[in-house]
Amino acid sequence: MQYLLIGVILILALVAIRLSNKHGIPALLLFIVLGMGFGLLGLDFDDFKFAEGLATVALMVIMFYGGFGTNWNMARPVAKEAIILSSLGVVATALLTGLFCHFVLGFSMLEGMLIGSIVGSTDYASVSNILRSKNLNLKYGTASLLELESGSNDPAAFTMTMVFLSVMMGSSLSVPVLVLSQVALGLVVGFVYAFLIGKYLRRQSVQEDGLSAVFMAAAMLITFASASLVGGNGYLALYILGIRLGNMEFRGKRDIVFFFDGFAEIMQIALFFVLGLLSTFQGFLRTFPIALAIMLFMTLIARPASVWGLMLPFKLRKNQLHMVSLAGIRGAAAIAFAIMAVNSGVRFSSDIYHIVFGICVLSSLVQGSLMPPAARRLTMLDPNDTVLQTFNYYQDKAEIGFLETRLHPGSTLIGRQVKDLRLTFDFIVAKIERAGKTVVPRGQVVLEENDLIVLGGEKHFDQSGHDLIEFTIPKGHKWADRLIKDLTLPADSLIVMAQRGEGDIIVPLGDTRLMVGDKVIMLKVDKQETVPAL
Description:
Blueprint: H1 2-23, H2 27-40, H3 48-68, H4 72-75, H5 79-103, H6 109-118, H7 124-133, H8 142-152, H9 154-168, H10 175-203, H11 211-229, H12 234-246, H13 253-278, H14 281-311, H15 318-326, H16 332-343, H17 352-377, H18 392-396, E1 400-406, E2 427-434, E3 437-439, E4 452-458, H19 461-464, E5 468-472, E6 482-483, E7 493-500, E8 504-506, E9 513-514, E10 519-524
Antiparallel strand pairs: 1-4, 2-3, 2-4, 5-10, 6-9, 7-8, 7-10
């Protein structure tokens, strides 16, 4: 009977995913409602210990895969803003919320601060789900900013939760020591394991017989356990490991992407369903007024005040700040931290689980539903691109790849029809951008000056792309302001492409002069060779 029940739950979860992708409703909300529904039908479950174990494993997968799926090249321009929001932003939001809970709602100071810490971080799964399902490619790199912030801010909330729980439990360690050990040791373990595992993957292949996914799961578990054993933040270590491995090329990476794509989805379904099952409708209604008050305060005051205050030095646009403020959706991590608090043995004056549960449900429903129309109302949408480029795992599992090039004045392709291109390789003209509009590349279409042509073809980068090296020529480099024919290159190396400015592709000929800032793509067969000294 239990297996039949599990099968029915999984089928209903798939339906919920379809609804989530179609309507942009956070999957967290649908899975939780599904769990609550089974609870109302008589499926009794109140095992907080089991739920904490499941939540720990699920958050490990979500944190690691969140980092793995972050495209660092897209996120780098907004990294400073995202890191500040994921650390100081969480602290500011948590403290403001804690003060509200104490002075307005009547909680004790420590209990109010604990609630603020638990709900201090935003939910990566919900934010990324809305961005993908509604294709919200936000201007000014905002999608990458939200992706990086929501993927990396759970460790800060976890640290603050542990600190206030420790104080309430009478820990002898001072708050600064607790914070320093959590953050510093988590960072050290994360970077050390990222370096060692990355180096191993560069030298060895674990692609055979699906072992790459097994190896990555083992690496994830070892990294988390090592950080936890020394008193560091295991989630922070996992996120660093994920970012490092997700942004390097190695054999078997596509297998890992497909495995973790499904595994992370299953873990999210299980976690959200159990969280919903763990709640009761009576408990939800009883704490609803408090949860609603805290959610509204965070949405209208705490989150905007933190975002606007911390982003002031970066001079972000007003509509961008409004969008970032609205995207502070609370989710699975907060409920998981609430379970930790319940299991800690600390006696609370209120039902802290259902308060946090209600905040997250209301946040997902209200903020998640408002994000798509708000993006249009604030003119934050960029219709000329797709948000999927900000996620590594969508690029890594694609069977095809795309290359774009612009027809500059004097190009021999100007005036030719698409059907006459007679491309040598198995590429097709996927689309043509002309004066800000898309032209369907039918055979009789004539190419014009300044057309942006997008070519598509099969992509097998992780089998052969490891021989390609990409680097940017800095000021003072020995290749700067020199012709390619005058460079002394090893016999096993060849400059295959160069990029100048925002996207000008240069075909490297002997008389091509390399300039400072040019991005050079070089084929280097001997893997022991290194990029020329910078």
